[in-house]
Amino acid sequence: MPNEKSEHGRSVNQRVTIREVAAKADVALSSVSRALSGHPDVSDEMRKRVKEVADELGYEPNLVAQSLRSGVTRTIGFVVRDINNPMFALLARSCEQELRRNGYSMILVNSDRNIENENRNFSLLRRRRVDGIIASLVSEDSPYIKKNLSGPRCPIVLLDREVKGVNASAVLADHASGVHEAVTHLIKAGHREIAFVTGSNNVYPTRSRLEGFTKAFEDANLKVQPDLLAIGGFDADYALSHARILLHRNPAPTAILAGGHGALMGISRALKENNLTMGKEIAFIALDQLPYLEVFSDNISTVYRDTEAIGREAAILILEGIEGEKPRVSVIESEFIERASSQGGL
Amino acid sequence: MPNEKSEHGRSVNQRVTIREVAAKADVALSSVSRALSGHPDVSDEMRKRVKEVADELGYEPNLVAQSLRSGVTRTIGFVVRDINNPMFALLARSCEQELRRNGYSMILVNSDRNIENENRNFSLLRRRRVDGIIASLVSEDSPYIKKNLSGPRCPIVLLDREVKGVNASAVLADHASGVHEAVTHLIKAGHREIAFVTGSNNVYPTRSRLEGFTKAFEDANLKVQPDLLAIGGFDADYALSHARILLHRNPAPTAILAGGHGALMGISRALKENNLTMGKEIAFIALDQLPYLEVFSDNISTVYRDTEAIGREAAILILEGIEGEKPRVSVIESEFIERASSQGGL
DNA sequence: TTCCCTATAGCAAACGTTTCCAGTTAAGAG
DNA sequence: CTCTTAACTGGAAACGTTTGCTATAGGGAA
Q1: Stated in angstroms, how far is B18 CA from D17 C1'?
Q2: Which of A39, A183, B22, B298 has the most CB within a 10 Å radius?
């Protein structure tokens, strides 16, 4: 058995090529290619013979060579802001399923909330010549954003981001309506001191949530109290430190909204430190029904959006872009789901 | 601006190639390649000039062409049994970080607990000519396993799987020792009716856990009661239905072990149905410290293994394989971490 | 001065496909 | 029977790189 093993005992990547299939079937390279790729100009007999030989030899086409020649990689890049957020796992998963159903693979890269990493990720995906990029950007005003979203490039789908002046599709969640519903609910229950912790204003979700929050107060002829807003970071550390401050405010907040996974982590820790129980001493609402909540914390009121639908929609939009259709924006609804944690506090 | 936009308004993938860089810098193709790839046979002046021109034109090398020519894709495939399990998100993430630090990208594919999917996934990754595959197999005795783990192929790292007769590396967790510790703890506390729900015997973790479980009983001169074992599935449905049965046994179990994410979900639901609280009416231990537990359920006793270390180790092993080193097995320790949930029940 | 060697640069083949174009055959029309 | 056409098949170029080989120039040793 010559050439079977290298000196390290590793099998050699001595894969069978289209050339060997052609030789064994005694036909031209081009005929093998056409027979296997479903090209119409092939006789039934030819197709049958080629397929038999290909199976026999265990031929598996080289996608790298196919990509180089055809200019298409059947690969989508997925740039995620912070893979720590379990929501993204869910989102990426449903997106990958939809892509796979259409014959695409996904390369997932994590920016770790860092703009430089994000820029490198875009560059990497371009070098890999992915057919499309789905991205959850760290911020909407990074200095690299023009370069990465304009210029010569593949179709792009943004997740929950609004960037002006670029030709990209987007999936946006309508956070405003769900938050409006939630805050209205609290106000009707008698809450006035409602605290809100979430990420900074340079991303769409914060703006949309804030819009719903503000409108609920306006609708009730009340004024938002700026010192109850902690708008600055999605990470748990930010939430923890600001929740501590908020809880010691006078008068203390009677309700608190956690905008995202990090906020939920930080706030719940701060509550524990202060011996406050959600739904008793303080009303609590999580913005986003995080996947782990259903396991143990099924009493937490949330503003729900269908994360898996967002992933699927992103896949659909990117496939549309690859087909040459114009970019478009798709909006996913959100709704308030009342559970025990939003009671109490008064 | 000719050629800037297609009729659909999409930017054309009119990327700059090495050829254009060569033309503009007035040097040969090969010189550009060598200058940019760090080849030694290049004068400082040449390198400088080429780099300037490349930057100026915004040249980004085509990784597809590089891969075809060099036979190396700098891509690792990650086949995951069930992406629903949040543990895999953590594992994949730490693995991806380590790979990226070494210049590799990761393609993640999900088998959804289905052997056919798994087989297709392996085939896809081979076609993509990945440099290595890290895999969490659905089962150790699938009919495709020989084909996928032997034959002409790239290096392979198995996650928590033991397959005889194949030349693959593996990262194994020593579940046995942690489970032994946990069960011994329960026995010492006076428990005799200890139930155990986990996946089927055709994967290593079950066997290792069972080994620890059995040995703890043997060490205490006690007999394992087979009807307290539900060894058959990692999914929540299996766990729920079997936990229901177990809880109605006579005598009822005083303690219960949940082997994995699905078991945890199913059992905790069954407990709730029966109005049983962990740490009070029944002692409870989760095998695997699942990532979401620390958010809200920080009172759950667990058998802990460092998931991120497993991911990193898998990356290290696959890189070793690519370097041509012999496959080897790496073992990760586990330990029992006592918290409130493992009290009570007696 | 001559010779050789080193450092550097260029040419061209190759990686494994797809696809354009041209050629062949057979069938159907006139 | 000849011509046209349709249906297929084969040859070869091309995709964008890397890399082995060859060529040249310049410097140092003899």
Answers
A1: 8
A2: A183
